[in-house]
Amino acid sequence: MRYELTLDAFILRLKSKQLTDKRTGQNVQYEVNDAAQAAFAIFFMQSGSFLAWQRHLQQAKGKSNAGTVFKMERIPTDTHIRNLLDPVSPSEFSDEYRFLLGQLAESGYLSQWHVLDRRLAFSLDGVYYFSSKKISCAKCQRHEHEHGTVYLHSAITPVVVAPEQPHVLPYVPEFIIPQDGQEKQDCEMNAAKRWVQQEADVLRQHRAFLLGDDLYSRQPLCEMVVSSGGDFIFVAHRDSHPALYTVVDAVAHLGRIATFSHRHWNGRYGETWTYRFLNDVPLCAGDDALVVNWCDLQITHEETGEVLYRNEWVTSLLLEEGNLPEVVACGRARWKSENENNNVLKNHGYQIDHNFGHGQEHLSTTLLTLNLLAFLLHTIVQVADQIYQQVRRALGARRTFFNDVEALLRYLIFSDWRSILKFMFDQLELEPD
Ligand SMILES: [Zn+2]
Fold first, then answer.
1. Where exactly are the structural domains of the chain?
2. Which is higher by pLDDT, 12 or 177?
3. What separation in Å is there between the alpha carbon of 130 and the centre of ligand 1?
C-alpha cells in the first residue's frame, strides 16, 4: 500500500521503530518509543507544556491526545524521557529522513525543490544547539570566556533548498565532534566529510549538489563530493583562496573573463546584475590542485552605482551564460538554511535545554534529531496536506495555528491529526478548494 505523507502515518512509523533499550527484564520496549513520541510531540506542537496538559486530561477523562493522536501507551515524565532517550543514538532516526525524502520524490512533491534540470541542492551549515556553563561531556566543545568556560554542542544541519521555494527540507544532521589539537573549523570539515560519505547513495540518486560557505571550499571536501557522485557550489573568498584569485585576476587583466549583465527592477529602483565566470581554474596552489569553475555576481544601484551585493563561488558544474544565473541563485539560496533552519533551532530549539537537557550519552543529539524531524514534518504537511494548507491560510500566522491546536487539545480529545484538522476546517466554515 502506498505510504501517505501525513503526520498520522509518520507517528505510526515512529511507534513501530525498534529503539535501543539498555534495560533488561520485562518487556518495556513501548516505554522507549513513548519517550521518542513524547519528545517529537513537544517539538511538533512547539509547546513545552503540551504533555503537562495531556496528563491533566488523562486524570480527568481517563484518556488524552498523547495517547489518541500521538499514540503513546503512557505519558512519560520528563525524567523518563531523559533517561530513556539518553542511550538511543541519533543515527537510529536517520532512516526516517531518507524514507521521507524518498516518499516526497515518489509522490511528486519533491519537484517543488528541483533546480538545474531536476537536481537537488543540499545546503550545509554548522549550528550550535546546546550550551551550558555547568553541564558538559567528552563530546562538548569548550569555549573559554572571561566569565568562565561555556560548553557547547554543534552540528551540521543540511537542508534541501531551492531559490523560489520558501520552505526548506531538513535532512540527516551530522554532529561536530571536537578532537584534541584540532581547530573548530577542521572539526566541522570532518563532520561534512563524514556526512558526504554516509549520504553518497542519496546524493547520487538525486543528482545532488552541495551549497556551503567559504569554510567548505577546500580541496579535500570538494574532491570527496565529486568522487561521491555529487557536485558543489561553495562560496570562495579572495583572502582564503589567494592562488585561485591570482589566476582569476590575471585572466581578468587580459580582459578574457566572460562577463554579462542583466537589469532588474526591485520595485523601487533599477539594479544592474553583473555576472562573471571562468571555467578550469586551480582551486589552490600546487600541481595536484583541483580544477574548478569560478563565478561572481555584483549587484549595483543603477543610478548611484552603489554596490548592493557581491559574492563569489567555485563549483564543479561547467559554467556557461545559460546556466549561470540559476547556479548563482542556488549559491545565494544558502541563506535560507541560515535563516530558517537556524532560527527554528535557536528560538524553538532553545526549549531543548530547558525541557530535557544534555544527558550522559546521546540525549542532546537525539533530541536535536527529533526536533529536526518535527520541523521536516511541518514542511511536509505544508506541501502535502491540502486541509492543513487551507486552515493555515484562513488563520494567517503560523503561531495562531499552533496556539489554536494546543488550546483545542487541552480541552477536547481527537482520534488523530486528520480529525483535528477536519474540526478546524468545519468550524472555520471553509469550503474545499
Ligand atoms: Zn556535551
1. 1-88+385-433, 234-321
2. 12
3. 8
